[in-house]
Amino acid sequence: MIPAPPVPAALRRYVVARLPYDVAFGAPGVHRGLPSTTLTFVLPIDDPLRVSWAGRPASLHAAWGSLSGLHTEPAAIHHDGAQQGIQLALTLEGARVLLGRPAADLAGALTDLDEAVVPPALRELPERLHATPAWAARVALVDRTLAGLAARAGDPEPRAEVAHALALLTSGTGVEAAAAEVGYSRRRLSSLVRAECGLAPKAYQRVARLEAARRLLGHRPLAEVAASCGYADQAHLTREWSALAGCTPTTWLREEFPFVQDRGDGGGAGSEHD
Questions:
Q1: Tens digits of per-residue pLDDT, 6-45?
Q2: What are the HTH araC/xylS-type domain coordinates in residue numbering (predicted)?
Q3: Label partner for 105 (CA 20 to 30 A): which of 35, 41, 91, 127?
Q4: 41: CATH
Q5: CB-based contact 197:189 (threshold 8 Å)
Q6: DSSP letter (8 states) at residue 65
Q7: pLDDT at position 66
Q8: How many domains does the chain have?
Q9: Could you tell me if 180 and 174 are in contact, meaning their C-beta atoms sit under 8 angstroms apart?
């Protein structure tokens, strides 16, 4: 793990995790990137990030800066035995403020930063990072760049009722009840949520539940995780995990959990390096 200060207070509405990493695995391999309610922004150092959708080798691409929107399938992160870089988890509001576009524009996509429609300051960031040798200076550069974008962006936050509905869905409230709470029909809410994040409300809720379960796996028994996160039972948890993460919870604990623990991962499920 690379020691780093917390995300600056001015950025915490937009960046829920900012993780510098320098990891040696000992041998080439592949890691899973799980679905998440945040967007993943990865800035590799020394070698480009090689990522694809799991089970779809034809989607493999290499990039010096990668953006992934919300998705409902796992990504596959390929490495040659070591990886270095800085990874960020951006909120839906962060997409609007820092990327200048709604998260829905990037949903289900693994986008090369060079090809993305983003502010020039972000497109220039990989080259500037490569010219910065010290980790503390690299983290500071990322923070300054994002703070500058936030200061110039005004406050283009999602509609308050949509943000409230997404919070309700994350907490486990049903789609019908969430729509009633914010005063919309289910159809209208579905259209607005999809326009904001790129997922239908039910899909967003499934991803949010997976994200909550991921934080508890390895710390509590599977049956307790299922009950705490709103699954009908442990079998339901296993089915949903297999559908969204591409493996059972037990497989993820065996193959991925030690890596996540070693990194001291503080969130950003769905991140490219989880």
A1: 999 999 999 999 999 998 888 899 999 999 999 999 999 9
A2: 175-255
A3: 127
A4: 2.60.120
A5: no
A6: S
A7: 94
A8: 2
A9: no
Predicted local distance difference test score (pLDDT) of residue 271: 44
204-208: list long-range contacts, CB under 8 Å, 24+ apart.
204/37, 204/70, 204/166, 204/169, 205/169, 205/170, 205/172, 205/175, 206/72, 206/240, 206/244, 207/35, 207/36, 207/37, 207/70, 207/72, 207/244, 207/270, 208/37, 208/169, 208/170
What's the CA gap between 32 and 219, in Å, rounded?
20
- The single-letter code of the amino acid at 259 is F
**CATH code (residue 226):** 1.10.10.60
The candidate with the shortest Cα–Cα distance to 165, out of 186, 151, 147, 148, is 186
Please give the residue range of the domain that contains residue 49: 9-156
The whole-angstrom separation of Cα 142 and Cα 129 is 8
128 and 73 in one domain?
yes
Q: What is the average pLDDT across 188-203? A: 96
Q: Collect all residues with Cβ–Cβ distance below 8 Å to 262 and sequence separation of at least 6.
A: 1, 23
| Packed helices 160-170 and 186-197: angle between N→C axes, nearest 10 degrees | 90
Among the three residues 133, 156, 179, which one is the final residue of a domain in this structure?
Answer: 156
Final residue belonging to a domain, choices 156, 183, 212: 156
